[in-house]
Amino acid sequence: MSRISGVRRLKTSHGASGNVPEYGVECAKEIAVYMQQLNDWGPNVFKIHELSKGHALTSIAYSLLHQRGLLKTFEIPPHQLITYLLHLEHHYRENPYHNQIHAADVAQSMHVLISSPALKDVFTDIEVLAAIMAGAMHDVDHPGFTNQYLINSNSELAIMYNDESVLEQHHLAVAFKLLQESNCDFLSGLSKKQRQTFRKIVIDMVLATDMSKHMSLLADLKTMVEAKKVSGSHALELDKYNDRIQVLQSMIHLADLSNPTKPIELYRCWNERICEEYWRQGDREKDLGLEISPMCDRTNVTLEKSQVGFIDYIVHPIFETWADLVYPHAQNILDQLEENRNWYQARIPEETESARDEGVVDGGATSKQEKNISADHLSEEDIENV
């Protein structure tokens, strides 16, 4: 396919000569304080976006790869990397949630997860490069609608990808097509085999961000915990590629779901954004006469209750399993998750709590929407709608 839907030419390109700014793009000097937190769980990516003048993804991804010495290892031309990242940014839409700030957040979360002492020296340099870039690429050109909506509305993307991981396949197509744009091939210094390895890892990881894969990823992670082996240095032994890619797939899924594990002020901001995006989809579904997807009806959702259910049924089980795998190095993440859950639990409206006991909400039977976001009622079908 010579033409990929959604790919647009960027008018400006990063010059091939001259000094490279410290963070890849010109930033306000105040950004240094926030960039020093890139090795921590939950830096303020919104502030970084502001202080980088709208370039959160480029500044964070460039800084992470530079910090890890990967530009030197793979002879990555800085100007080409920056040009690619700027093109990638340009192809993230201005959605409330699925935008370049989310991509920057996932890439940074991947960096922290892969830095766990339990994973020391487990992954090769090419796997680390691919993992961070997979985070940066994983939602490019996201339209702000779920896979299920695209399928139900007979969208061109659903037709093109035969209803299978529609968004994820599109993100990959756009991300790799951009490598062919002028001055964007930052992988030019890699051997053919290295490029093939990079591509395979990124594809395997991005496809794992399809929420319909959640239950199987969780089951595989639990199996790995039961069978895990550690070396004398307490690092996991993952000698086979299949084991390493399974962990990498779990990591990008964790990074993609990590909002509830971040400091409460960041979590609340992300929550407001995803709700607005879901509600826009619900409005569109209503206009088209389609059944409104779970969590997408702005008139029939208790936000606080939905978050408690999301944490209990989706986020906590997989992060708890991850913590078992890298024990004891993720306890701080679980602690923050529990704190955030309690924050939302304490704010569930009293009438909703009492109505739940009586099976009544707002004077009527508990709605399908409310059931779909309750920890006790979420089904795999509901998960696929996320």
UniProtKB/TrEMBL annotation:
Quote the biased-composition stretches of kind Basic and acidic residues, using this chain's numbering.
349-359, 368-380
Q: Which residues bind AMP?
A: H98, N99, Q100, I101, H102, D139, D256, Q307
| The protein's name | 3',5'-cyclic-AMP phosphodiesterase
PANTHER family with a match to the protein in the record: CYCLIC NUCLEOTIDE PHOSPHODIESTERASE
What positions belong to coiled-coil segments? none
Q: Which domain of life is it from?
A: Eukaryota
Annotated segments matching region Disordered: 349-386
Binding-site positions, Zn(2+) 2: D139
Sequence positions that bind Zn(2+) 1: H102, H138, D139, D256
Give residue ranges for domain PDEase: 19-351
Q: Which GO terms describe its biological process?
A: signal transduction
What cofactors are annotated for this protein? a divalent metal cation
Listed A to Z, the keywords are: cAMP, Hydrolase, Metal-binding
Alphabetized Pfam families for the sequence: PDEase_I (PF00233)
Question: What is the species listed in this Swiss-Prot or TrEMBL entry?
Answer: Steinernema glaseri
What does UniProt list as catalytic?
A: H98 (proton donor)
Report the top EC class in one word: hydrolase
The family classification in the record reads: Belongs to the cyclic nucleotide phosphodiesterase family.
Q: What GO MF terms are annotated?
A: 3',5'-cyclic-AMP phosphodiesterase activity; metal ion binding
EC annotation from Swiss-Prot or TrEMBL? 3.1.4.53
